[in-house]
Every structure is written in C-alpha cells, then in structure tokens.
Design goal:
Elements lengths: L6 E7 L17 E8 L6 E7 L3 E3 L3 E10 L10 E9 L9 E9 L9 E9 L6 E8 L16 H8 L13 E9 L17
Parallel strand pairs: 4-10
Antiparallel strand pairs: 1-2, 3-5, 5-8, 6-7, 6-9, 9-10
Amino acid sequence: LSPAVTGRYVTVVSDPGRPGAVAESDEFNNSATTTTEISTPPADLQVVGVQAPASGFSGELVVVNWTVNNAGGAVWNGARYWRDGVWISRYPTLDARATFAGYQLHDNSQGLAAGGSYTAELEVALPAGADGPFFVFVMADVPWRGQPDEDTRGWNQLSLERYAREAWEPVGLLNNVHSTMTEVVYREADLVVSGLTLVPDT
C-alpha cells in the first residue's frame, strides 16, 4: 500500500463490476470487510543549512553544499530516491523568477530514520553576464510533475508510483527550502583584435 493510504477497514471484492466477468446467481455477496489500522507516520525533511562561496565570477562553476534533517517519521521504505533542487535568484523568495541550477538525487537504499540527516552537494553555474548579490536556494524532496501537495486522492497505484520517487511528507512542504547568499562578480570574455594583416589580391 502507498504511504498516503489511511483507514480503519480493508475490503476485498471478488469479480468487481456490475455485472462482473463471471455470471453469478447473486452479484451482491462478492465482498468482505475486516477492521485494521492503516497509517504511515510522515517524514518531514527540512533543509537546515546551505553553504556557497562568498563570491564567484559570473558564469563560473561553484559547489553548493546543504544539510537536510528529518524531523518526522522514518522515510517510507518503498521510496527509492527523491530529488533535491538548487535555484539562483536576485530575490529573497523562491518563485518563478528564480533560475533552476540543477538536481541532486538522494538514494534511499539505506533509509532515513526519524531524526536522521544527510549532506549533499552540487556543482552549479553562476548566472552569466550578471553582477551583484544573489540568493542560492535549496529545496529538499522536490515534487515530481510540479505537484505542490501530497497525494490524498486514494488511487493506490498512482500514489505508489509517486512515492517511489518522493518522500511521503506532510502537506505543504513549507520547510523544505533554505537559502544563502553569494556575490556574483562580473567577468566575461573580452575579445580584442590585436593585429590586422592585409593580403595582396593576386
């Protein structure tokens, strides 16, 4: 079952549909229900620190480091991996104005327990032709397909596929982002003609 599944009952239906694939004398006795308790404590991944060089030249590659803590339950063991993303922006809020710099996949083969943490890094390019202060944002567990909230629609197979590639977290992901600042110093190529030779027309 997907970690998004919650409930107190499990119902099994044989030959579903009206009518089903098998012709029967009674189509209304093909199910049974039992009680249970289904829930998965959600993880809560929080980016608690981001480090980038204090300054760098425009267009230059720099390394961004970050630390993620899990303030919730253990990450569901069906999650194979999730993505952390890096953005660069002139503005203090991560929004559509930010420039995407890259993803770092986090492998979950060893799991991430409640209270656990990990560090990661990614080499990114500073904006070309730019100058001045920039914010470097890191988001942990970036949603696939741009879905901002967790899946509570009740479609188990789609939910399983989603949370094989994301961590099951509380709705909102509001604490998954952290930032730092770096100063971009303008430095670009400057091509200068240093000599000119005329060849006689023969």
